[in-house]
Design brief:
By secondary structure, the protein is mainly alpha-helical. Helices cover 60% and strands 7% of the residues. It contains 16 helices and seven strands. Helix 7 packs across helix 9. It is globular, with a radius of gyration of 23 Å. The two termini are 41 Å apart.
């Protein structure tokens, strides 16, 4: 912890043993699940992507021990103090910004065949990446400590300042996700994790094979994190985004032990409810941790939410600047609604032509979207507070949150629901109790 959360040596030993025991059982469960999957008949998505499948059990075993070896060493005398941690995390994300700039310059130099400049930029980029890697383990601990402090403040600890499950992340390269949907409707049918090094050409080969052989719309997409343990978080984003993503993935760990998470895969509404709770609360908790760790939140000119029809209420700063021009949210919502109309009328090919035309419009306006198809909306539509969704769950959860005094109360309350209807009943009770 960064402040007010020091444990005695005895408590630390008990904590470590508890976590170790829990993680061993989790790893055994994952291994059994993996062995079970290996003997099942592969679905079309797994067959099409078979050369690129991601081994989640291997990742778990490869990362858990190194994480906790570092964590145990970190609590011994001589570890980084608060001031050093704050300096490290600022340096880490500043180096990340420099690396992104160098990568762009390197691509330009290579395209212009500026050999000496290209080599100089490559050398500097390698040095920056090496510096970041030397800081990574300590930065992970700092992020975990910052989020944990916020969780304690929100009374989400189970015993004094003990958070269960403990916040645990790994900054790196999460796997890609292959999503499929029938062409005649938007429905998330298969999800398959692929290796993080899958190239664009390989993504498109998998997507094309599923279209040709199984008549499925498919999309291989980057993801913002994966709720493995430790959670896998991209290392190439800003500090604020990273803290929001880390909080989001921890919330999936937290919900796993509660009725909401345990019933997540009961139906599509429950998946959307879980993901949207994690998005709403994850952003709030992540922003709190961001400020605690020295970040400064950008000024907000309007609060964005959705009404029951899915329309955006309020504006982000970006959308306000584009009020007289291009608005991503407005245009994406229009796209989704029109696609739904065309598919409902059986106009599958027309819907697909329309989605490609709209994709080109987004690209022309600075949004580098590689593909928009039924699988795109099946994936992003799961997050009910986004413009790609037509679900009322986003608005319902924002209303639910507005009746809670703080995010901790919101999570403790909503995590107790085991069905979408149960959530609706609780929301109705909350709103009927208002004067």
């Amino acid at each position: 912890m960064l402040e007010g959360a020091c444990l005695t040596d005895i408590n630390m030993k008990h904590l470590f043993l508890r976590i170790w025991r829990w993680a061993v059982w989790a790893a055994i469960g994952l291994l059994l699940l993996s062995l079970d999957n290996s003997v099942r008949h592969l679905n079309p998505a797994q067959l099409a992507a078979s050369p690129y499948l991601y081994n989640i059990v291997e990742w778990e075993f490869g990362n858990f021990l190194s994480k906790w070896t570092h964590r145990l060493a970190d609590v011994l005398p001589g570890g980084p103090d608060r001031e050093m941690r704050l300096a490290q995390i600022q340096e880490y994300f500043q180096l990340g910004e420099e690396a992104r700039g160098l990568s762009r310059d390197l691509a330009d130099a290579a395209a212009a065949e500026e050999v000496q400049r290209r080599d100089d930029l490559q050398a500097r980029l390698s040095d920056v990446r090496s510096q970041r890697e030397s800081l990574r383990a300590d930065v992970e601990e700092t992020i975990e400590g910052g989020i944990s402090s916020v969780l304690v403040d929100e009374d989400l600890s189970t015993l004094r300042e003990f958070i269960f499950p403990p916040v645990d992340i790994r900054l790196g390269n999460p796997p890609k996700l292959l999503i499929t949907s029938p062409r005649d409707r938007i429905e998330r049918t298969h999800d398959v994790l692929l290796r993080s090094d899958v190239t664009v050409r390989q993504r498109e080969d998998v997507e094309s094979r599923l279209l040709a052989e199984s008549d499925l719309a498919a999309l291989v997409e980057d993801i913002g994190g994966l709720a493995t343990y430790p959670a896998s978080i991209p290392t190439n984003q800003t500090m604020q985004w990273t803290l929001q993503a880390a909080a989001h993935e921890w919330l999936h760990h937290y919900l796993f032990f509660r009725p909401l998470g345990q019933n997540m895969f009961k139906n599509d509404d429950m998946i959307s409810l879980n993901e949207t709770v994690a998005s709403i609360a994850g952003d709030e908790l992540g922003d709190r941790a961001f400020v605690l760790l020295g970040g400064e939140l950008p000024a907000k000119t309007g609060a964005a939410s959705q009404d029951a029809s899915g329309e955006i209420n309020g504006q982000s700063a970006e959308d306000e600047e584009a009020e007289q021009g291009f608005s991503f949210n407005r245009e994406m919502r229009e796209t989704r609604l029109r696609v739904d109309e065309l598919l409902a009328d059986g106009e599958v090919e027309q819907a697909e032509r329309y989605m490609e035309e709209r994709r080109q419009l987004f690209v022309e306006n600075g949004y580098a979207i590689r593909k928009i198809n039924q699988a795109y909306f099946a994936f992003y539509g799961t997050y009910a507070d986004t413009a790609a969704s037509v679900s009322p769950i986003g608005d319902q959860l924002h209303r639910f949150r507005s009746h809670m005094p703080d995010v901790g109360t919101f999570l403790r309350t909503v995590s107790g629901v085991s069905s979408y209807q149960g959530f609706l009943d609780m929301l109705e009770m909350l709103e009927n109790d208002q004067p």
